Amino acid sequence: MHRFIFTAILLLFFARISYAQEWTNAEIRKANTAGSANYLTEEEKGVILYMNLIRLDGQKFYYTFLDDYINKYNANVRQYRNYNELKITRTNTYYTSLLKHLQGIKNLPLFYPDDKLSALSKGHAVDLNRNNLESHESSNGDKFSKRLSKYFPNKSMSENIDFGYSKSLDIVCHLLLDCGVPSLGHRFNIIDQKYKLNTVGVSIQPHPSYNYCTVIDFVAQPIFYTSNQ
């Protein structure tokens, strides 16, 4: 019995090590669909890159980039008195449920950037900043679907908004964990398969209450591209 337990632990250890390997240059190149999008900042391009790495190999992302994010996050919040409430533990239900959702994510179709969609994302992020809002609705009351449908009619669409981060890895990991969001809507947009979301717009802007806000818009539409592999 003891020998069986030892063997199981050993197998688990080696499985963890295999997923902790570095990502290959080929994987990074494949995920970097926004590399030549000159209308995006480097961090905005990074948001698309990291979302695509998740779609290429969700479990590998969980054990590499997500682990790095959590370690850095926990180190940053250690300064606060309520550290025990703020820290992300390995027993956190959002952390444990994420592994279940990412285990089957492998070689999904990638996200590709779009200049018009990114302009719409920027327009909403600027509106949130100008009016100190935290909503999918514009200051004039328009829902995100109305904003996007003007240029992308009759398409499946969705929107993620993140507050507090300016760095792409932090933004993507924060949305992927989706702590405090029971519906896990941000997470499911990133790993979407149901609605065939494949086109994205991204904008990172300042925000008076949270320092930064990021708007990511998703649309499903036929796209034609040249592989950058």
Tell me what the structure shows.
The protein has 229 residues and is an alpha+beta fold. It has one domain: CAP (Pathogenesis-related Protein p14a), CATH 3.40.33.10. Helices cover 49% and strands 12% of the residues. The protein has a 4-stranded mixed β-sheet, with helices on both faces. Strand 3 and strand 4 form a beta hairpin. It is globular and about 45 Å long. The N terminus and C terminus are likely disordered. It holds the Pfam family CAP.
Sheet-strand content, in percent, reads 5-15%
The major beta sheet can be summarized as: 4 strands, mixed
Provide the low-confidence segments as ranges: 1-20, 225-229
Number of strands: 4
**What's the domain count?**
1
CATH class: Alpha Beta
Number of helices: 11
Percent range for helical residues? 40-55%
Distance between the termini: 48 Å
Spatial strand order of the main sheet = 1-3-4-2
Using the CA coordinates, give the radius of gyration.
Answer: 19 Å
Q: What structural class results from the helix and strand content?
A: alpha+beta
Average pLDDT value? 89
CATH superfamily: CAP
CATH topology: Pathogenesis-related Protein p14a
Keywords: Signal
Pfam family, one: CAP
Domain SCP: 106-215
Protein name: CAP domain-containing protein
Give a quick precis of the structure.
InterPro entries: CAP_dom, CAP_sf. It contains 11 helices and 4 strands.
